[in-house]
Design a protein that fits this description.
By secondary structure, the chain is an alpha/beta fold. 43% of the residues lie in helices and 11% in strands. It binds flavin mononucleotide. The site of flavin mononucleotide has 24 residues, from strand 10 and helix 16. Keywords: Flavoprotein, FMN, Oxidoreductase.
Length: 365
């Protein structure tokens, strides 16, 4: 089957992955209302073209802190990327480097900070979960030493969302294979070859860390963060990390203003792809409310089309993050699959700009 759009890649990923892996990738929390709303909110936005402009040459590149990105796309931080391909984090980082876009490595990655830095020469961002403040400090220092350019603090996981698909599949940590799961795996020989035969992927950042607290690994595996982390801790993090700092997971403009007043460089308006608070609004819906925030706004959750990215940029975003779209590419075709998915989004952006009568993201008339 020709893979013409992100949904085609999703269907292909569904075919190739064992059920428990696909459900972990694709699912959301509770009734998955936020997952559906994220899509519905994009689909309801209309773009009104302004025509008779010369759009024979288009340029979708954007400025990001004085640097040119070829397209306003960042690969979002996602945990357990080794479930789709061996060394999934490295493959994503290499794909991003080939595309000239940033890749954000999750705290819950299966390749370590150092492995990814050694394997890629692209722009690397590190996403921080704070389970334990000492361990978080170690991670920050390691990301600094490994030349990561941005730190992304995710703040919408004081507790893990209730992922009922994972519970039904018994995909909860520590993971134990049940007969049903073994049958599922045996029905997916390509996955078994690419991933399963290497065993369960490890939380690589923990494996190489010098942490004394044995609860930290369990906390990361079950997404149990330090729920006492607050604005004062953010201030301390700002002091510790000298490069660009982003806060990810805000949905209220007042929180964004406060973060920026503490020296945060940019904000990611996100509901975690509908995987945390199921009653959260769609980020694209609340984005216009962030217009007074004096910092770049990145938006994510639900982006599946180039036109979604044009919509986000029209509503004030400086860039977007893509989570599942990149992972569908990874699951389907490894590094090349990621390059193909982002390439497809770029072609869709280009066509949408032309049909909108827009040469660039700044040339709206
Ligand atoms: C499988 C999966 C794992 C994720 N893991 C993390 C993570 O470790 N850290 C984080 O900040 N966000 C994580 N996210 C959220 C993404 O960074 C991003 O906000 C979300 O995927 C955007 O929505 P989209 O998937 O609809 O593009 C994860 C999302 C998915 C789908």
């Amino acid at each position: 089957m020709a893979l013409l759009n992100v949904e085609d890649y999703r269907q292909e990923a569904r075919r190739l992955l064992p059920r428990f892996v696909f459900d972990y990738l694709d699912g959301g929390s509770e009734d998955e209302v936020a997952v559906k709303e994220n899509r519905a909110a994009f689909e309801q936005i209309r773009l009104t073209p302004r025509l008779l402009n010369d759009v024979s040459v288009r340029d979708q590149s954007v400025d990001w802190f004085g640097r040119r990105l070829p397209t306003p796309i960042v690969i979002a931080p996602t945990g357990l990327n080794g479930l789709y391909r061996k060394d999934g984090d490295i493959l994503l980082a290499r794909a991003a480097a080939r595309l000239g876009i940033p890749f954000a490595l999750s705290t819950a990655s299966n390749n370590s900070i150092e492995q990814v830095a050694n394997a890629s020469n692209g722009d690397l961002w590190f996403q921080l979960y704070v389970m334990n403040r000492d361990f978080a400090d170690q991670l920050v220092d390691r990301a600094l030493a490994a030349s990561f350019s941005h730190l992304v603090l995710t703040v919408d996981v004081p507790m893990g969302g209730k992922r009922e698909r994972d519970e039904r599949n018994n995909f909860i940590m520590p993971f134990h294979f049940r007969p049903k799961t073994i049958a599922d795996v045996l029905c997916h020989p390509r996955w078994l070859w690419n991933v399963g035969r290497h065993g369960a992927p490890a939380m690589a950042n923990l494996a190489t860390a010098t942490i004394t607290d044995p609860n930290t690994q369990a906390a990361l595996l079950s997404r149990k963060m330090d729920a006492s982390f607050d604005w004062d801790d953010l201030k301390r993090l700002r002091d510790r990390w000298p490069r660009r700092l982003l806060v990810k997971g805000l949905l209220h403009p007042a929180d964004a203003e406060r973060a920026v007043s503490l020296g945060v460089d940019a904000v990611v308006v996100s509901n975690h792809g509908g995987r945390q608070l199921d009653a959260a609004p769609a980020p694209i819906e609340v984005l216009p409310g962030f217009s007074a925030v004096k910092a770049p706004i990145v938006v994510d959750s639900g982006i599946r089309r180039g036109s979604d990215i044009v919509k986000a940029m029209s509503l004030g975003a400086s860039a977007v993050m893509i989570g599942r779209a990149a992972l569908f590419g990874l699951a389907t075709g490894g590094e090349k699959g990621v390059v193909d998915v982002v390439g497809l989004l770029q072609v869709e952006i280009d066509r949408t700009l032309a049909l909108m009568g827009q040469r660039t993201f700044n040339s709206r008339s």
